[in-house]
Every structure is written in C-alpha cells, then in structure tokens.
Amino acid sequence: MNAWTDIMLVVLILTTFWLLGSSRLASCIRICAIQGVATGLLGVVGGGLSIRVAAISLAVIVLKGLAFPWLLSRALRESNTSHEVQPFVGYVASLLVGVVILGLSFWADSCLPALSHVASRLVAPVAFALLIAGLFLIVARKTAVNQVLGYLVMENGIYTFGFGVVREIPALVELGVLMDVFVAVFVMGIAIYRINRTFDHIDSDQLTLLKG
Amino acid sequence: MTLIITALAIWLATGALCLAFSKRPRLVQAIGPAGAVLGSLPALFAAGCALFCGSTGALQLPWSLPGANFVIGMDAISAFFTLPIVSICALAAIYGREYLRPYEGRKALGVSWCMFNLLSASMLLVVLARNGVLFLLAWEAMSLSSFFLVMFEGEKPEVRRAGWTYLVATHIGAAFLLVLFVLLGRPTGSLDFDGFGQIAGTPALASLAFVLAVVGFGTKAGFMPLHVWLPEAHPAAPSHVSAVMSGVMIKTGIYGLLRTLLWLGPPPLWWGYLLVGIGVVSGVLGILFALAQHDLKRLLAYCSVENVGVIAIGLGIGLIGLGSHHPLPAALGLAGALLHVVNHAIFKSLLFMGAGSVLHATGSRELDQLGGLLKSMPSTGATFMAGAAAISGLPPFNGFVSEFLIYFAAFGLLGAAGIPVVLAALAAIVSLALIGGLAAACFTKAFGTIFLGEARSSQAEHAHEAGPGMRAPQILLAALCLAIGVTAPFAIGVLKPVVKQLAGATDLGDWTGAAALPLAVVACAGVGLLALFCLLIALRAMLPARRMTTAAGTWDCGYIAPTPRMQYTASSFSDPLTRFFGPLLGIRRKFAGPRGFFPDRASHSTETPDMSRERIYKPAFIAIERAMAKFQWIQHGRLNLYILYIVLTLLALLTWKLGRP
Predict the structure, then answer these.
(1) B544 forms bridges with which residues in the sheet?
(2) Do B489 and B634 share a domain, yes or no?
C-alpha cells in the first residue's frame, strides 16, 4: 500500500513539472485533470478504505477530473483567444524554478519535526512543492485560465497534505474545502467569460487598464 | 426597554419595507413617514418616563461578537438626548413626505426613506448603547445612513463632493473614537461601559481620553477646526434630512462627550478652559462665516457651528465650575449647555424646514434670488421669524433662556479666586455677547432678504405657500420655541436629574431654586413683550380700518421706475460687518465697477471659502497625497505581481520559521 501512495505522489510531482513545461492551454487543462484524479486516488490507495473516504475521493475525482476541466475547456473554447499559455517566465526557466521549489520543499520537510503515522515520507515535501508551484503558476502565467489551474494545483497540495498527514479530517471540513474550490472555479469561469466579453482577451495583466 | 426595542423594530421593519417596495413610490411615501412617526412614539414615551418619573432600565441580549455585548440602558442623559432625537425625526418625517413629493418616480425614494428610518434607529441606539462595540457600530450606521441621505441628489457634482467630504471627515473622527474606546477598555479588558470608569484612576490617561473624545466627537458635533463637513453636507442634503442632521445628529457628538466625561472622574481646570476656548472660536467664527454666506442652507450650517460653540462654552463653564468648586456656576453652565442642545434642535430644524419650504417654492437657496416671500408664504415666514428670533437669543423665545443660563453661570465665576478662571468667564461673557449680536445681524439679513422687500427673481415672484404637511411641523416647532421660552422657570426642572448625573459626586445644592427667580423675571418680561406684540398687531389691524389704503411697491422711495434689483442685497447688508472682520474671513471679492459717462457693464461678487478647509485641510491632504504618490509604483495594477508579493512573504515567513534553531 505504501508503494501505491508513493506512486501517486510521484505522479503528482511529475504532472506538476509537466504543467510547468507545457505551452498549450488545452493540454494544461488535461494535465490538471490527471493530477486531480491522482489526488483523488491518493485517498483510495492509502488503505483503510471507509465509506467516508471513498465518498470524498469520488467527489474529488469527479470534480477535479471531470467537472473543472469541462468548465475550463468551455470557457477556453468560448473565448476565442490565443490558446498559448503566454508565460512571463519561460518554460525552461519554469522547470528550473520547479526544481528549486522541490529542493526547497525537501529542505522544509527536513526542518519540520518528523510526522507520526504518516502514509509516506514523501507526503509533506510533495504537498509543499504543489503548494508553492501552484502559487508560482499563478504568478508566472498571463491568462486567467492558467491562474485557475495554478489555484487548483495549490488546492491539490493542501488536500494531499491534509489527507497524508491527518487521515481523519472531518468530512465536513473536507467537503467545505471542495465546495470552496468548486465555487471559486465556477466564479473564475464566469469571470473569464466576462473579462473576455468586455476586453476581447483574458490576459489578466491587461487589467492594469482598470487602475485609477 | 420593551418600548425601545419596539421602536427600533418598527424603524428597521419599515425601512426594509421601503426598500422592498422601492418600485412603488406612492406606497413608500406612505410606509416610510408612517414608520418613522410610529417608531418614535414608544421611544418618546420611554424617554419621557425615564426623565419625568425616573424609571431607568437596562437590557442585555445575547450577541456572539467578540468583545461586544448588546447592552442598552436608559438613564437621565440618554433620556434627555432621546427626547429631541425622536421628536425631531418624527416631525422631519412628516415634513419630508410632502417635501419629497416632487421627486416621486424620479428618485429612489425607497432607499431614501429606508436610510432615514435607519438613521433614526441608529441615533437612538447611539444614545442608549452601553457597550463600546455596539456604540461604534451604531455610530457607523448613523454616519453611513446619513451619508446616503446626503447623496440623495448624487448626480450633481457639488453634492457628490459634499458627500465625500462628509464621509472622510466622519471617518477621521471615528478613528479617534476607536482609539478612545480601546484606551477606556484597557484597564478591565472589556468594552462594556460599566468598567470604563476605572480610567479615572490615572489622570494622565484620563486627559488623553478627554482630548481624543473632544477631537472624535467634536468632528461630529462641528467644533471649529473640525467642522468642514457641516457647510458642505447640510446644503447638499434634502431639507428634512438637513433638519435632522443639523438639529439632532450633530448633538450625538455632544452626547458622546458628556458620556465620556462621566467616566473620566473630576475634571481638571484645563479641560474647562479648552472647551471654553473651542466654544469661543467656534461660536464667533461660525456666526461670522454665516454672516458672509449667501446660500441660505450654508448660512444655517455655519450657524450650527456657532450654536455648538455656545454649547461648548456652557460645558466649559460647567467644568470650570466643577473644577474650581463653584457648584452654582457649574450647575448653571451644564444646564445652559443641555438646554441649548434641545433648543438648538428645535429652532435649527425649524429653520431648515423653513429653508426647505423656500427652496420647494422657488427652487433657489440663493438669498439674492429671493425676496418678498412673506406675502406669498405668510405661515412659513412667521415661523421662520420665530426661529430666527430664537436662534439669535432674543426673548421671549427659548434661545434666550439657555444663553441666559450660561451668562448667569459665567457671571457667577467672575467673583471666583484665580485669574485664569475669571479670564475664562470673561471670555465666555464677551464672546456670547458678540455671538448674540452677530447672530441677530445674520438672521435679520436672512429674514429680511428672503421675506421682505420685493421679489428679486421670477421664481420668487411666483412662489406659493407650502402644503399643510410642511407647515404643521414648523408651526409646532415655533410654538415649542415660544413655550420653552415662556415656561423657563419650570422647564429647567427637567434638567435637574441630568445635571445631577453629570456633576457626579459633587453636591450642587438647590441650583434650580437659585435660577428660578431670574428666569421668572425673564419669563414675565417675555410674556409682557408678547402681549405688547399682540397689542401692536391688533392696533395695526384696527387703525387703517376706517381710512382709505393704497398699495404701493415695497421700498418704492418715490422712484419713477424702481426695480427689485435696486434693493439692498444680502451681501450689501452684511458688508460693514464682514469688512470689519475681513482678516478673519478671507472673503474673495471680484469687482468691476462702472466706468465712463455711460457705463454699461459692472459686476461685483463675493465668495467666502471655508478658512480651515483652505488653510488647514487642503495643504494637509495635498502633502499626504504627495507623500503617498511615492509609493504608487507598488500599486501598479498587475495581478501577478500582487500575488508574487504574497508568495514571497509566505516563503520568507516559512524560511524564517523553519530556519530558526
């Protein structure tokens, strides 16, 4: 069982790097979907499968694997803008930053007191890496769709940490977080649509024009 | 307390209803004023019970906000301030219903009435709150609802400017109050008013709290350098709102100051000097600026500054009396200030309603556009004159009584030991006399220009009397002015419990007895004056009965072709006085005199910008803006970089936390 958890964590890291190096928005959304499914499976393969864990995992997989990608693809399709990522920081540089982030995460983990009853030694560093990489994606990409993706990666990190470290998160809290993300993505989807309608593009950096 | 909750519930419910039915102006015009009047009745009853029968009470409801407790209480001071608040709100609502009728269908009356009822409820809550958080919430609700009321005609740029000035000023004041309450709550760690008295133990902190209260509450009340919002917001608001704001809302500042004084223990002398100083400056400069205005509502707003100054002088004399152990002047000064709070509420709302009726009838607030309105609007003219006489402090009206009490107190201090006390009393007397004279000149100018002479514009010529809904509140208020003035020896009995509460442990003796005799003389003289007035009117009606009368133009003066433009204007009437005080006022004149033997064009105009706005606030705000402009590169509008700030901060914190051994 430990092996499966590790595999899922490695998948999470690899998808993050993939995301950092991808140039097409459509494929970014797909990668994010894969990562979402992997996050959901983390709970299933962790062992001690109860109905509660199964339900949450299923909800995560459905939302992050199907619903969000579908919403985002639709927003992308309806906004007939460039389907390129348009990075502030280039792809190679992004990958290098990713490596630094991973190193930083392992260092941070080594500084933390050892976590007991943790499913795998990799959980905390991977979670940190996802968190910071998500924030980096938000900062380093131009289009609003990409920022939503960054937000999702960040949330995956939070979820991974929570699920790996504290198996017994109250279901209500977890569902609350999911609900939060769902609403956020929903709002962002609408916002993207609106920004596009108003400005004919979804480049968030051009929002500077709104500054007084 | 049930009555108070009922009042609050009625106001809030009708306010919500107004908002819900905002698409149907006629319904809103029925619900809003009806709710305002209905809500004020139980509150009026509760306050009356508390003041006349001494039935105080308190109520605590569960409330799950940190540091907050929904505690309200009714004591003498609260009841005393509740009376004018609820009565003026009810009368202004009756007036406002008719005043707003022309706006039906053109303006969002639902919002306006909702905010009006919210303003009434929050003002009541301000004077009843017994917890710091509740007080500040009510205070903020009061500021915001009145801001929205001021913005009623927000499509006009000058109204928007006035609204923003008000919002900024009121929040600067609120910031001081926040610090004040934190300071007061520190010793006990609770923001309930019960524990605030502990600060009296440390005189330095008490003095700091006093200064904070003077600035914070003084901004609302309109003490002189802090008054900038009054001359902007009052003219911009609809007249019934100006009546409420100027009549009672600014008095919540006085209430806050009094409430703070209760906690701070026995006052040192310099608090009294400070208040007298503020009062003298506000009073004299306020009325001087009023004299220089030619916008009627702006004039009235400056006049509010003057009256708040008179109240501050009274309070200051009271505090000096307490501090120097002169119980009689202390009691009389406090009583005069308190009575002036009520009196000003009555005559200032009366005058604002009068100004509203004039505006309603002619569409102009410019004094030099009006004239001769007494013929077309006799009722409004008569009540306006009563208000003008009252505000100038002339007997037999109520303004005289309160100013008389303050004079009486100040003269009582003249025999005191200590040069500073005597000097303060002397300053109070001299400035009160100056204020009274200037106020009389100011209102002679206002009344004379508006109601006497010939109409200066076609709108003024075709003016019509306001409807009964607008006339009735004014008549009632004018009658109240007269009633308080004539029944003064009995009316001050009402003040007894309030003054007793304010004096704290000090034994004031039988001050009402000491004041009753001179007041009785004053009242008798007032009645005599009234009788003489009636006699003259009767004589005036009888004399020409059997003679032939011819009607001619007013101030015809035997000219062949007189025009209304040959009359004295408002500025020319006040010119000798404003010229004399010119250095204080900073009047800007534009004069192009007639030239040559056949002069064609000539013009003269004056403008009196607010001195503290021009000299203090404008430079200060410009300096702040310049300093802040240096940081504008941070505010670049790039979303990514904003998030980058957050990420970097988080990473730095994480590294710092983890890197520590």
Answers:
(1) none
(2) no
Query: Same domain, yes or no, for B241 and B292?
Result: no
Averaged confidence pLDDT in chain A: 78
pLDDT above 70 covers a percentage of chain B that reads 100
Contact status of A64 with chain B (Cβ, < 8 Å): no
Q: For A131, which residue in chain B has the nearest alpha carbon?
A: B647
ipTM over 0.85: no
A100 near B CB under 8 A:
no
Q: Is B606 helix (H, G, I), strand (E, B) or coil?
A: strand
**A-chain residues within 8 Å CB-CB of B636?**
208, 211
Query: Residue B619 belongs to what domain range?
Result: 613-659
By Cβ distance, the residue of B636, B641, B654 closest to A108 is: B654
In a domain, B397, yes or no: yes
Cross-chain CB nearest to B643 (options A104, A111, A139): A139
Q: Which residues pair with B588 in a beta bridge?
A: B607
Task: Say how far apart CA B465 and CA B382 lie, in whole Å.
Answer: 12
Give Cα separations from A52 to A4, A60, A157, A174, B216 (angstroms): 20, 12, 21, 11, 56
Residues B232 and B341 in one domain: no
Q: Are residues B243 and B378 in the same domain?
A: no
Tell me, yes or no, if A138 comes closer than 8 A to chain B by beta carbon: yes
Closest-approach residue (CA) in chain A for B656: A108
Q: Last residue of a domain, which of B242, B265, B288?
A: B265
Whether residue B592 lies inside any domain: the answer is: no
Q: Are residues B312 and B205 in the same domain?
A: no
- Domain end position, chosen among B247, B265, B283: B265
- Which residues on neighbouring strands pair with residue B129, listed in sequence order? B72
Specify the number of domains making up chain B. 3
Burial of B48 (0-12, 13-18, 19+ CB in 10 A): middle
B496-530 pLDDT, tens digit per residue, is 889 988 888 777 778 888 888 888 988 898 899 88
Chain A CB within 8 Å of residue B643 CB? yes
Mean pLDDT of B545-549: 78
Answer whether B390's CB lies under 8 Å from B402's CB. Answer: no
Query: For B466-473, what is the mean pLDDT?
Result: 91
Does residue B225 fall inside a structural domain? yes
Provide the mean pLDDT of chain B. Answer: 89
pLDDT band at B245 (very low <50, low <70, confident <90, very high): very high
Would you say B484 and B519 are in contact if contact means Cβ atoms under 8 Å apart? no
How do residues B275-298 score in pLDDT, each as one tens digit?
999 999 999 999 999 999 889 999
Do A18 and A9 touch, CB atoms closer than 8 A? Answer: no
Helix pair B327-362, B398-414: axis angle to 10 deg: 150
Task: Judge whether B42 lies within some domain.
Answer: yes
Q: Is B277 in the same domain as B248?
A: no
Indicate if B144 and B246 belong to the same structural domain.
yes
Helices B25-48 and B109-128 meet at what angle, rounded to 10?
Answer: 10
Same domain, B242 and B304: no
Q: Model-level pTM?
A: 0.81
Residues B116, B17: contact at Cβ < 8 Å?
no
